[in-house]
Amino acid sequence: MRKIVVLTGAGISAESGISTFRDSGGLWETHRIEDVATPQAWDKDPALVLEFYNQRRKKLLEVEPNPAHYALARLDDHFDLTVITQNVDDLHERGGSKKVLHLHGELKKSRSTADPDLVYEIQGWELNLGDTCEKGSQLRPHIVWFGEAVPNIMPAANLCSQADILLVIGTSLAVYPAAGLIDYVPHSSPKYLIDPNARPMPWIPNLTVIPEKAGSSVPGIVDMLLKET
Ligand code: APR
To answer: Global pTM?
Structure first.
């Protein structure tokens, strides 16, 4: 089976009603990264950090996958497909995708501050001070904060190095190492960048830029790929 890798960012969830980060009105316009998304922020004011993620988790429980998420899941039966996402929402999973690799963590999970291998599902939308792991240590959001290592980056790079086709959907490609994954994809493999604000990237070989929203364009792209099987 041909291997497809899909690299997604906040833009694929925008039409589900989830804020992006760097669009107008995005999360980084209303919050300072250093206040809510760094280890230093956690040390300084864990309650503020928990509240930032509680509000995002509460919103996530109110939204649904959009046609782009559902369309990608249609590829699973005909391609060896992996979705590599920078998103911490679970919309790819709820949209039916079977193989989803989260680079920046998962909003619906918490992690022990004493043992990073202890990861738990969060019931409901709140994670609060005093919520502890089985070893009695405070639980933190299971999120990769700025300045922290991205544990899944090498498996992601390995997948990209074997990709016959790459779809890049809804990411500004502003944050590394995730943005560097595109460089691991073989030059000969066709690549599609779907983003209404996508800028030309002439240095990327075999790239087709589709300056459209994910919800309206990804189903058609999936139909095109399925016709090729
Ligand atoms: N369809 C497709 N793309 C869209 C849509 C849409 N409906 N709406 C917005 N976009 C595009 C924007 O044009 C932008 O290029 O989605 C992109 C979102 O970019 P960012 O807000 O920077 O989000 P992302 O690329 O996912 O950020 C990467 O940065 O803050 C960290 O950890 C956070 O995972 C995040 C990482």
So the answer is: 0.97
